Amino acid sequence: MMPMAFELSDSVTLLFDFWDVRGPAGMVLSVFVVFLLTVFYEILKVWRVWLGVKHKLAQHESRYGPAMSSRCDNSSVLENSPSESSLTPIDPPSPGPHRFSLLMHITQTILHLMQVSLGYLLMLCVMTYNFWVFLGVIGGSTLGYFISFPLLEQI
C-alpha cells in the first residue's frame, strides 16, 4: 500500500514500474530528473505566453500598422496569460492570412498538451509522498520561475 504521509526513504517507484528507485544514488538521479522536468514545465508555461503575445502583436501590426502596435506593448502580462486569456472573449479572426493563425493554433495546442501532461506527471511524482521527490519538484518550480518569468518583461 502507498504511504499517505511524507517519508524520508531512498526507495520509491516513480510513474512507471521500470522507474523503481532503490538506494541513495538512484534517488539523487531521480530527484535531479524530476527537478529538470519541473524547470522545463515552468519554461514551457512562459513560452506559451510569449508565443501568444508575439502572435497577438503581429496580428495587431498587420491590421493597424507598426505605429499603433506600441499601444499593445504596455498591456500587462496577466492579461495575456493562458489562464486569463481563456476567460476573455477572443477577437474575431482577421481577414488576413489564416494559415499563420492555424499554424499558431496548432502550435499552442501541442504546447498546451505537453504542459498539461507534464503537470499531471509531476503531480503523480509528488503523490508518491517521498520527501526528496517533493523537494525536487518544489526546487525545480522555483528555479524555473526564477529563470523564465523575468523574460516576460522583455516582450
Structure description:
It is a single chain. The protein is mainly alpha-helical and 155 residues long. The protein has a domain at 36-72 and 97-155. Helices cover 62% and strands 4% of the residues. A two-stranded antiparallel ribbon has the order 1-2. A hairpin with a 6-residue loop joins strand 1 and strand 2 (20-22). Helix 1 (24-64) packs antiparallel against helix 4 (98-126) and helix 1 (24-64) packs parallel to helix 5.
What letter string, H or E per element, gives the SSE order? EEHHHHH
Count the E strands.
2
Residue share in β-strands: under 5%
Helix content, binned percent = 55-70%
Distance between the termini: 49 Å
Could you list the spans in which at least 5 consecutive residues all have pLDDT below 50?
A: none
Q: What gross morphology would you assign?
A: elongated
- Average pLDDT rating: 81
| Tally of separate helices | 5
Q: Could you give a short account of the major beta sheet?
A: 2 strands, antiparallel
Strand order in the sheet with the most strands: 1-2
Sheet/helix structural class: mainly alpha
Radius of gyration: 20 Å
